[in-house]
Design a protein that fits this description.
The chain is α/β, with parallel strands linked by helices. The chain has two domains: 2-134, Rossmann fold (3-Layer(aba) Sandwich), CATH 3.40.50.2300; 155-232, Orthogonal Bundle (Arc Repressor Mutant, subunit A). 53% of the residues lie in helices and 12% in strands. The protein has twelve helices and six strands. The chain has a six-stranded parallel β-sheet with strand order 2-1-3-4-5-6, sandwiched between helices. Helix 6 (121-132) links the parallel strand 5 and strand 6 (137-138). The chain is globular and about 50 Å long.
Length: 245
């Protein structure tokens, strides 16, 4: 069972999402928020596994809200949680198809997934489970936007990023490159001739060493450091390339 906080500024849409999600046997809706400020205030005390945030018309305030929910400041977290409490909630963002310019910023802010607003109901439910359990979901449309954003930046990897990359073992670098190229856990295991459980262990170690909370951030890191070049990504038609499977 996973718990979800719904964030949407349209009353009818919030109601529709709540009715759909509450009909799912493995999802419990613990609250609703009509705007970013409400979402930030509710995420601490409610401590949902996932926050489903409708990006509406993407702007700086919404991206900042993603950051404050997914990566709360220490004084905010201390006010609402104790040391034994769970990690901050994962954030799944529903965004319009023309939000390409905000996709990269949203992922860097800490979102665990980006899904198109016109996703099918079953896709939404599956994406929430994936993100809540620590995986990541990225619609192919936003995968292309991520590639373009990193390409536009050029090879300007910072000293800090190079330092974090140097912490990885040779095998971890291989796993990160495969992950960023769109391979699932089972495909990485087959490709590298290792057990799927070993792949999961490697990914956990990678996230810890580079300071990332989710696979999406690891993919961003791989592109930013130049470990993976845009042309190495699989064709755009492959759905949810970085989803945890």
């Amino acid at each position: 069972m996973i718990t979800v906080l719904i964030v949407n500024d349209q009353t009818l849409q919030r109601l529709g999402l709540r009715m759909f999600l509450e009909a799912q046997p493995s999802i419990t809706v613990v609250g609703e928020a009509a705007d970013c400020d409400q979402a930030i205030r509710a995420a601490g005390p409610l401590r949902p596994d996932a926050v489903l945030m409708d990006m509406g018309r993407p702007d700086v305030d919404r991206i900042q809200a993603v950051r404050r929910i997914a990566r709360p400041d220490s004084h905010v977290q201390a006010r609402h949680t104790d040391p034994a409490s769970r990690l901050p909630p994962r954030v799944l963002v529903l965004a319009p198809s023309d939000a390409d310019e905000y996709a990269y910023a949203t992922l860097r802010a800490g979102a665990g997934g980006l899904l198109l607003k016109d996703a099918l109901p079953d896709e939404l439910a599956a994406a929430l489970h994936t993100v809540a359990l620590g995986g990541s979901v990225l619609s192919p449309r936003f995968t292309r936007a991520l590639i373009e954003a990193v390409r536009d930046q050029g090879s300007t990897s910072s000293t800090d990023r190079r330092s974090r990359l140097s912490r990885l073992t040779e095998r971890e670098i291989e796993v990160l490159a495969a992950l960023a190229s769109g391979w699932s856990n089972s495909e990485i295991a087959e490709r590298l001739s290792i057990a799927p459980t070993t792949v999961k262990t490697h990914i956990s170690n990678i996230l810890a060493k580079i300071g990332a909370r989710a696979r999406v951030q690891a993919v961003v890191f791989a592109y930013e450091t130049g470990l993976v070049k845009p042309l190495s990504l699989r064709p755009p038609g492959r759905a949810d390339a970085v989803a945890s499977r």
